[in-house]
């Protein structure tokens, strides 16, 4: 059994660490810290609250395990106490006490059940308000209790809940055949107190007639709750206006415009001057992520249209390998208005109504176009934007971690050899899709997130795994 001194030392050492703190990234959006300009922020003689007095060794999991593995061991003293307690037990007292416990437990269960029903009603009203806020129109959400009532009264064809999507015109109300997971009370218990608080902040911000985009960016930097991510992304990308009254007309106009492009250009995909572009798109789509989603014929069809129309309308760059990956996050986020994000890879996209799929397709096209407007030089001839960003990454790493930079240089590892894909695919091939979506929450909240802030994320990758990099002596392994 580990000594008490060992445990006290471990918890004392670990207790000062507070995870989740957010600090400004100086050199990205904020200027470097200048003691002369920011002198008023530091009082003379004051002790910074977050700076430790001396450097402390980082605790490893093995050390944690060795110091706490005996936390539940019973000693001899415990056994003696249990034996004494057993000798002093009286059968009548035990039975009487047990009877009282059962009665109290029954009362508590009834009280808990009443509170649960009351809480469920409040949550249903809350999610109904959220849906109307997120839509910017009068979208309806049928509660779970109403759904059960209607199922006992109506015929089988009227059983599915009706919901107005924020991406649909006011005149159309489509059934969500995949369920109302976004607003179902079944997911409510999974929300932590912090998550519920953050969701409430987003709801309040989106409830006004004009959304404060600066405030939305501040909130979004630390991540966007799944339930409001679709409308938040559309606002942050500049696709939707901040004014609520203008959103519905903007959506209708932009969707009609996109499908006018499809009608005008898509039939030319087999023409001689467009055959190579379409063939390359057709080859690249099976390489996308997630793996199961990309193999569905309906998804392939949607992505082919989006990429081909973008290539035709941007002849300066045309289609370049890597652009196909940039559609995926938007497509997944917008489709998750109707399904659980965890299930998106196995979801049958063709089961959604055709009008919903058309709206998701048009919204994905325009949001991807907004993203590419800021990094289009990454995909023009010779891709000068990527080469410039790789050089900037090299300079940045040489300043923040000279040892790693010198190690790469000594082994003749060029930044372009490993960082080209980081810039071309925005790290989508390096991290899971859910991490990419979370990362894009922050990218879209930064003024130049996809072009400038992305460099600091790439540099953070190298610094994070510096130990592994420095241990490698072989070119191929590095």
From TrEMBL:
Keyword Phosphoprotein present in the record's keywords: the answer is: yes
Protein origin, superkingdom: Eukaryota
| SMART domains given in the database record | TBC
Q: Which UniProt keywords apply?
A: GTPase activation, Phosphoprotein
Gene Ontology MF annotations: 14-3-3 protein binding; GTPase activator activity
Q: What's one Pfam family the UniProt record gives for this protein?
A: RabGAP-TBC
As recorded in Swiss-Prot or TrEMBL, the protein's gene is named: TBC1D22A
- The Rab-GAP TBC domain sits at 223-447
Role noted for this protein: May act as a GTPase-activating protein for Rab family protein(s).
This one is known as TBC1 domain family member 22A
User: Where is the segment annotated Disordered?
Assistant: 145-173
Give the InterPro entries listed for this entry. Rab-GAP-TBC_dom, Rab-GAP_TBC_sf
Respond yes or no to whether keyword Transferase is given for this record: no
Q: Where is the composition biased (Polar residues)?
A: 162-173
Q: Where is the composition biased (Low complexity)?
A: 150-161
